[in-house]
Structures
1.
Amino acid sequence: MPWESREDFENLLADLRAEFKPDGAMEQDTVVDLACLRWQKQRVRKMSQAATYSDPFAVDLIQSGKKSWSGIRRHLRREAKGFRTMIDSLHDMYMRLADKANKVGDGLSAKERENVDVESARREIEGILSTMTQHVLPLIRDLQSGPNAERTLGKAYSPEYLEPILRIEAMIDARIDKALGRFANLKAYKSLASGSAMLPPPPHGRRELELQSSGT
């Protein structure tokens, strides 16, 4: 990819060539395949890290500077306390608005009985209800169901999050094993072919005896 390091890939390929010492086109191609598969595995890990870093709460955990599980737990408890306080404040606001709407409604009923102009009271109720339904209530729901620091940490270690990553890595590992097997077979084939070519032909008389014995 344009944003990936060509130099890093070339270094990886050079290390594999130095390790396996490929000889011939097929072995060279197999080592290139190994380098590509290793690169893909690294890419999967980088993408999983990028997905975690894209969460603002993960950034907050990193910026907290905590380096131990106990420190992270204390940080999460403080964050959760502030989070609950915010939701409680919004819930109190919602209840105050509902109570105000009820009081205005009660006054509106009395004005209707007295045949008094009630248009302003109706507009006030509509404004209160609009604020409740369009702003306060959706915000409460978003905060309750949306991400937070504790969910972010849990997600990063949850089986549901890790399972697809591990499955992809296992698929790449299987292909790496297959490429290594191909490389070993190439080496074995060349070794066998070279050994057969170096064997001297049997004496003429011995060859005839072998053919006769094989025919029987």
2.
Amino acid sequence: MSVEENLIMGSLHGEAKAKRRQTLEYVYGLFPRLKERRKQLAGTLSGGEQQMAAIGRGLMSLPRIMMFDEPSLGLAPLLVQEIFTIIKKINQDGVTVLLVEQNVTQTLKMCHRAYVLENGRVVLEGTGKALLENAQIKEAFLGI
């Protein structure tokens, strides 16, 4: 399937289907590369572009909440920054974001609320800013 066909698959129900064109333009605004490659087979995209297509497809359903599980995994540093910028924009546009990520610094800089899990248990919680300044976090995760 092409990139655009994949995106359209995310908007097959009710309101999402009715607002498909508008949402597609929103997704292409977030990811101009997808618009450039809309006729290309999605399976031939680079890893970063496939990540963009997956996020775009999720957005096509007009979600109120989106969960991201390690969105930076395996991506080049420039793409990591781009993905985090887009996730922040999605949140600013009204979608609640649940982000599971090992890139501690980048994640804490952008999140409103954070939870640190250790062996499946919450060991710390607070605002992203507070945890970024926390001595335990600096030592355990940031090597400071």
3.
Amino acid sequence: MELLEAARLLGIRTIYDIGANVGTWALLAKAVIPEATVEAFEPLPKHCAEFGNNLRGVYGVRVHPVALGPANTYAPLLVTDISDASSLLPLAQIGQAEFSVKEIDRVGVQVFRLDDFRSQQGLQFPELIKLDVQGYELEVLKGATECLRHTKALVVEVSFAEYYDGQCLFHELIGFLAEFGLFVAALGAHTPTGVMLSQTDVLFLRRS
């Protein structure tokens, strides 16, 4: 919530919730910035169904049942027994051990470049992007370069260890977003200090 509160001061009107899961973060975003429109993206069918139930009656929120990535394609979503850990990337050994999860199914999903999907659907450009896609964050951003040029802020779950095979790490995201004038502004309140980092949430803001 503290990262949303910081972003709220920017006059945010359009939010993209990428990796929306069952809508918990979208509800929080509407509580903190009630005037904002939320466009949510969640490819797992059972999560989409729960999202619809949880957000029923909440004005200005839509969920799009698609995955996002660097190309328009069709790909298997690797579903884990704790579905929050499902990803387009396979779990690495460290991820299986850390999260105590295993793959139980594969679901074919449509993957879009965000820039193409936004244009096709006539969506407003995002002013705030929340991104939590289990190691696939950089691949999503590669398909969202036009959106990034209009974005004021991002809230991203970042990793410091490779929990998924081929996933991006914190330093890679920093370098990529810097090319679009977006830089680290704050870390989540629960980020530990004095110990090895694993994952945390980071607020990136456009530097004027």
